[in-house]
């Protein structure tokens, strides 16, 4: 009987705290429906790895290394960047670049909304080594796979905290963005209508677009070729018209399967002794700063453009320039409808949102080019 209960004596307060954190993530996933495909496996995994002598992670037992399933998955799928890159194929297959190709100038908002990355890089470099600071700054890309790949390539010591911050803030975009947008805009600005003038985008344009973007990005930031290449390959599968079954598989089965593995494997880096440090809290704070300034950068850039434009832009669409696709685009659309039930911003905001997806990957590639 004593052997059955000996684990109870090994429970630490730090592990109890991690159980609470895991429970909170599960609560947000189920009760608030905040990115449940991400937060639920991360939350449950956090509880698994913080049980005393957990067999889910590798550990030494009587001088012998016992392999844990989550540690094995981490080595097989995350430490070599495999899971994030495969997920990018699924994400690329989900994206319709049509709204962006209809109005290419929307791409500048995607670039403007990466301001928070470089602002946070400067701020984080005060507290961390430059490679760790660059890895933390990329949380502002609002793109979990990009954050993982950059942190791995730069050899950051805080991979676990960076992964958790990136995915948690992606899930919290519906809470983070609206107050910032309202703070930076007036009611009149939020009510600006933007008529959508659809134009037919030729099939050959949609096919050439991912190829050209890969070529250009690869020449500017070679380190980003795998990131942008897998994303654009997924989109090429979607648009080529001869691989419909593969496109559906990538969008649904592949993306969902990899998301499950990615979420629960991320939790292997949330062991209490490594996660509950003052640096983790600082990283979470800096990640929030990056998200705030990304959102603000896009909105303010749109407001500046309005000083020179006859046909005004609703500055809220600038906030959709972060990479959280399609959440951010939908948030802007809903905020526009709340102010004016006849104000349909969805196509504009989604166009900006997909441009943010590209811009965030390019930003990640530039970070790697500067600091690898």
Low-confidence stretches: none
Content of β-strand: under 5%
Q: SSE order, as H and E?
A: HHHEEHHHHHHHHHHHHHHHHH
Main pleated sheet? 2 strands, antiparallel
Give the helix proportion (percent range): 55-70%
What's the helix count?
20
Cα(first) to Cα(last) distance is: 54 Å
Label the overall shape: globular
Count of DSSP strands: 2
Q: Trace the largest sheet across and list its strands.
A: 1-2
Mean pLDDT over the full residue set: 87
Keywords:
single chain; mainly alpha; 20 helices; two-stranded antiparallel sheet
Task: Characterize the structure shown.
The protein has about 375 residues and is mainly α. Helices cover about 70% and strands about 0% of the residues. The protein has 20 helices and two strands. Strands 1-2 form a two-stranded antiparallel sheet. Strand 1 (about 60) and strand 2 (about 65) form a beta hairpin. Helix 12 packs across helix 19 and helix 14 runs antiparallel to helix 15 (about 225-240).
Compact overview of the structure:
With 372 residues, the chain is mostly helical. The chain is built from 20 helices and two strands.
List the SSEs and their pairings:
Blueprint (H helix, E strand, L loop, with lengths): L1 H8 L3 H18 L5 H14 L9 E3 L2 E3 L2 H10 L3 H13 L3 H5 L4 H6 L2 H10 L5 H8 L6 H10 L5 H13 L1 H12 L2 H4 L12 H18 L4 H15 L4 H23 L5 H4 L2 H29 L20 H13 L6 H26 L1
Antiparallel strand pairs: 1-2
Helix pairs in contact: 2-3, 3-11, 3-16, 4-16, 5-10, 5-15, 5-16, 8-9, 8-18, 9-10, 10-11, 10-20, 11-18, 12-18, 12-19, 14-15, 15-16, 19-20
């Amino acid at each position: 009987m004593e052997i059955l209960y000996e684990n109870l004596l090994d429970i630490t307060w730090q592990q109890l705290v991690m159980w609470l954190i895991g429970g909170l993530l599960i609560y947000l996933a189920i009760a608030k429906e905040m990115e449940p495909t991400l937060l639920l496996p991360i939350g449950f995994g956090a509880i698994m790895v913080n049980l005393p002598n957990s067999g889910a992670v590798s550990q030494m037992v009587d001088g012998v290394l016992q392999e844990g399933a989550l540690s094995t998955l981490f080595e097989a799928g995350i430490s070599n960047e495999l899971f994030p890159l495969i997920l990018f194929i699924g994400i690329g297959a989900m994206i319709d670049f049509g709204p962006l190709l209809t109005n290419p100038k929307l791409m500048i908002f995607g670039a403007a909304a990466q301001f928070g990355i470089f602002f946070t890089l400067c701020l984080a470099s005060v507290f961390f080594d430059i490679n760790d600071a660059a890895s933390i700054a990329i949380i502002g890309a609002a793109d979990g796979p990009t954050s993982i790949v950059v942190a791995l390539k730069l050899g950051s010591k805080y991979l676990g905290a960076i992964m958790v911050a990136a995915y948690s803030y992606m899930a919290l975009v519906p809470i983070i963005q609206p107050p910032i947008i309202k703070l930076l805009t007036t009611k009149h600005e939020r009510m600006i209508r933007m008529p959508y003038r659809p134009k037919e985008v030729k099939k050959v344009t949609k096919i050439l677009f991912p190829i050209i973007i890969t070529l250009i990005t690869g020449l500017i930031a070679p380190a980003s070729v795998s990131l942008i290449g897998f994303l654009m390959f997924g989109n090429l599968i979607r648009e080529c018209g001869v691989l419909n079954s593969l496109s559906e598989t990538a969008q649904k089965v592949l993306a969902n399967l990899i998301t499950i593995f990615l979420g629960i494997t991320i939790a292997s880096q949330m062991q209490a002794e490594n996660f509950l440090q003052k640096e983790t809290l600082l990283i979470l704070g800096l990640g929030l700063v990056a998200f705030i300034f990304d959102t603000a950068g896009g909105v303010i850039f749109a407001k500046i453009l309005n000083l020179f434009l006859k046909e005004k832009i609703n500055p809220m669409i600038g906030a959709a320039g972060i990479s959280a696709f399609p959440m951010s685009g939908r948030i802007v659309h809903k905020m526009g409808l709340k102010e004016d039930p006849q104000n349909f911003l969805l196509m504009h905001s989604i166009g900006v949102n997909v441009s943010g997806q590209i811009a965030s990957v390019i930003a990640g590639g530039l970070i790697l080019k500067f600091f690898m």
